Amino acid sequence: MALSQIRSVDLSRNFIKEWPRVKEKLANSTSKIEKLDLSKNLIRSLPSLAFHNLRSLVNLSLARNEISRLDDGVFFGCESLMVLNMSRNHIRTISDEWLFGLTNLQQL
Does the chain have fewer CB atoms within 10 Å around its N or its C terminus? Predict the structure, then answer.
């Protein structure tokens, strides 16, 4: 199966600390990913435009990480995202525009 055809990626429970490093690895195969599970990792922060190349993403789980802040534009480009699970994080700071671009979000 070609990587460009993958629709679901489960990276849960992998001790991932930095999303940008994972994003680099997925860069060539992200066009069709609809479901991404990054739950139960050690991610502490997400940069602006963290998921901008995941335009087909419908379901994203970032539950049970160590995310402490959500900056502007983190999910910019994720217009297809309908389900976002951010439960059980350590969020202390949320910017005014962190949800910018999530026009189809139905469940948070």
Answer: N
